[in-house]
């Protein structure tokens, strides 16, 4: 089998931490039917309860998981960037999508058909282990996020989310709408200005016409609750070990 070489104008798939962790033979086999695809801002990968027909390993994009009880996206429960995979948990459990999976930061991802992914995971214990590590860390993110939404101020929650988004974006500026901020914070759109206004006034961010720029990363970290570092530690504990 010929090893695939990334195109010069495309990011290396191994920028994704899961793909980076794979043994060469596992990586080559998984990538044999993979495609590097461009995903646009607000693209829906799957709707809640919809059948998952492919998994996505983000490289430069970020996916948000939005859940609701009435068919309309109400609140974000987790985000997945280059540290993870989207759709893997549902396929391993033979279930529909846990929520609306929406592209919040556009970019590129590795797309692998569902049948190929399941075949590879079944045949390759090393791949299965890395996927399970990520799913554990993702569960920890959801738990920390749920506790954070209950216990911490809107400003702290907003700072935590912006830090996680900044990590995944790989750049200081990224698109962010008031509508999406309302889903993230679980509040009305009219209320989101309170959180961003505090962070803008402190000089940590700039927010103009749907584009947010992180100006003072250290300041943003000081405004966040401890949940951000807890989530980072949870991922490092399982994804960085040999």
Please describe the structure with a list of short key phrases separated by commas or semicolons.
three-stranded antiparallel beta sheet; Arc Repressor Mutant, subunit A; 10 helices; 2 domains; globular; four-stranded antiparallel beta sheet; Jelly Rolls; alpha+beta; 242 residues
Count of alpha/pi helices: 10
Q: Give, in order, the helices and strands.
A: HHEEEEEHEEHHHEHHEEHH
The description of the largest β-sheet is:
4 strands, antiparallel
Number of strands: 10
Radius of gyration: 18 Å
- The span between the termini is 26 Å
| CATH architecture verdict of the largest domain | Sandwich
Strand content: 15-25%
Summary?
The protein is an alpha+beta fold and 242 residues long.
Structure notes:
With 242 residues, this protein is α+β, with helices and mostly antiparallel strands. The chain folds into two domains: 13-147, Jelly Rolls; 153-224, Arc Repressor Mutant, subunit A, CATH 1.10.10.10. It has helices spanning 17-21, 24-31, 88-92, 114-123, 125-151, 154-169, 178-185, 189-201, 217-223, 227-239; strands at 35-39, 44-46, 54-58, 62-67, 75-80, 100-105, 107-113, 173-175, 205-208, 211-214. Helix 6 (154-169) crosses helix 8 (189-201) and helix 6 packs antiparallel against helix 9. The mean pLDDT is 88.
């Amino acid at each position: 089998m010929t090893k695939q070489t990334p195109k010069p104008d495309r990011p290396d798939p191994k920028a994704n931490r899961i793909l980076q962790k794979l043994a060469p033979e596992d990586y080559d086999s998984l990538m044999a039917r993979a495609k590097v695809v461009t995903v646009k801002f607000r693209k829906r990968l799957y709707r809640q309860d919809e059948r998952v027909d492919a998994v996505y390993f983000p490289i430069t994009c970020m996916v948000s998981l939005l859940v609701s009880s009435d068919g309309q996206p109400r609140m974000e429960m987790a985000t997945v960037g280059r540290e993870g995979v989207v759709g893997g948990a549902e396929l391993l459990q033979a279930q529909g999508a846990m929520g609306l999976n929406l592209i919040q930061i556009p970019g590129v991802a590795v797309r692998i058909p569902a049948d190929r992914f399941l075949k590879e995971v079944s045949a390759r214990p090393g791949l299965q282990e890395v996927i399970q590590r990520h799913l554990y860390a993702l569960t920890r993110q959801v738990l920390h996020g749920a506790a954070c939404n209950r216990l911490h101020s809107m400003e702290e929650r907003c700072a935590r989310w912006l830090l996680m988004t900044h990590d995944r974006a790989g750049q200081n500026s990224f698109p962010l709408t008031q509508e999406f901020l309302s889903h993230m914070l679980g509040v009305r759109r009219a209320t989101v200005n309170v959180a961003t206004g505090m962070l803008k006034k402190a000089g940590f961010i700039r927010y103009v016409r749907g584009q947010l720029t992180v100006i003072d990363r250290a300041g943003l970290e000081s405004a966040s609750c401890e949940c951000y570092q807890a989530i980072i530690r949870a991922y490092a504990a399982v994804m960085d070990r040999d």
